[in-house]
Amino acid sequence: MNLVTIDAAGSEPPYEQVRRQIAQGAASGALPAGHKLPTVRQLATDLGLAANTVAKAYRALETDGVIETHGRGGTLIASRRLTDPEAEAGAQTYARLARTQGLSLDEAIRLVEQSWTP
User: Fold this and answer.
1) Count of helices and strands (H, E) across the chain
2) Would the N or C end of the chain have less CB density within 10 A of its end CB?
3) What pTM value is reported for the model?
4) For the domain 14-81, what is the CATH code?
């Protein structure tokens, strides 16, 4: 499976094709959180594009929170789960309850860990 394919005859600019396809892959789970993407230069070479075109797409994806760049550690698909509103609301509710019950952070985390496995 190719990470991205470019339709040179299409009306959509190449950087937008790169951005859209990676974003769709991340949203669908085809590119799971933590998946390491090729370097800008490598993807540009693979697609026959200028490095600046791929860099523009990566910058837009990073701004949107789809990818994370870790310098020499590479560029990875970001974890959407940490920014999931429903999960965040649940965590806030649990944290309030745990504090109300007088639990320390360590105790609250241990309860989550104990409950994690079905």
Assistant:
1) 5, 3
2) C
3) 0.68
4) 1.10.10.10
Residue pair 3/21 in contact by the 8 Å Cβ criterion: yes
Amino acid at 16: E
Which sequence spans correspond to the domains of the chain? 14-81, 84-116
Task: Give 45-95 as a DSSP string.
Answer: HHHT--HHHHHHHHHHHHHTTSEEE-GGG-EEE--GGGG-HHHHHHHHHHH
30, two tokens: 């085809």
- 57 within 8 A of 44, measured Cβ to Cβ: no
Question: What amino acid is encoded at 93 in this protein?
Answer: T
- Distance between CA atoms of residues 7 and 4, nearest Å: 10
Tens of pLDDT along 8-59? 999 999 999 999 999 999 988 899 999 999 999 999 999 999 999 999 999 9
d(CA 111, CA 113) in angstroms, rounded, equals: 5
Strands 67-69 and 75-77: antiparallel
Q: Collect all residues with Cβ–Cβ distance below 8 Å to 49 and sequence separation of at least 6.
A: 6, 14, 18, 43
